[in-house]
UniProtKB/TrEMBL annotation:
Record family assignment: Belongs to the calcineurin regulatory subunit family. CHP subfamily.
Record has Hydrolase as a keyword: no
Subcellular location: Cell membrane; Cytoplasm; Nucleus
Entry protein name: EF-hand domain-containing protein
Any single GO CC term annotated in Swiss-Prot or TrEMBL for this entry: cytoplasm
GO BP terms in the entry: protein transport
Swiss-Prot/TrEMBL keywords: Calcium, Cell membrane, Cytoplasm, Lipoprotein, Membrane, Metal-binding, Myristate, Nucleus, Phosphoprotein, Protein transport, Repeat, Transport
Domain of life: Eukaryota
Chief place where the protein resides: membrane
SMART domains in the record: EFh (SM00054)
Annotated Gene3D superfamilies: EF-hand (1.10.238.10)
GO terms, molecular function: calcium ion binding
Domain EF-hand stretches: 105-140
Length: 144
């Protein structure tokens, strides 16, 4: 994905992301602005550390687990670029906009939620994975 040197997306990048995600160009520009505000200066990607600095992540008991899903499952090399970030967020649309790739289907939303639990990607949630998430939510008061 190219930028025009001013830290902005090119018109072609915006058009491609709109086509892939179903977002409007205004939404893509707004998302890009937010993405750049989270990224380190002159960086074209977000790291786990960048996302952990978001205040609402710190108060969410599953915040770190969500960051792990975002970085490890949607990004590559422990970072996520803007297009990957936009595709991830497209999953959470209401489904009113028809998206050619179907990112915002109920199945994809459920898969994302399932992946919060199934971190070893064996397509099962085992006892330890469930206990780990429950401990995050209620603290150490659960004993396996």
């Amino acid at each position: 994905m190219g930028s025009n040197g001013s830290g902005m997306l090119s018109g072609e990048d915006i058009q491609n992301i709109c086509q892939d995600t179903g977002f409007t160009s205004k939404q893509v520009r707004r998302l890009y602005s937010r993405f750049k505000s989270l990224a380190k200066p002159s960086s074209d990607y977000l790291t786990r550390e960048d996302l952990l600095c978001v205040p609402v992540v710190g108060i969410n008991p599953l915040g770190e687990r969500l960051i792990d899903v975002i970085i490890n499952d949607f990004g590559e090399s422990n970072k996520i670029n803007f297009k990957q970030f936009a595709v991830l967020l497209a999953r959470f649309g209401r489904g009113k906009v028809k998206i050619s790739n179907g990112y915002n289907t109920k199945e994809n939303k459920l898969k994302f939620l399932f992946d919060i639990y199934d971190r070893n990607h064996d397509l099962k949630i085992d006892r330890n994975e469930l206990l780990e998430v429950l401990k995050m939510m209620v603290g150490g008061n659960i004993h396996g």
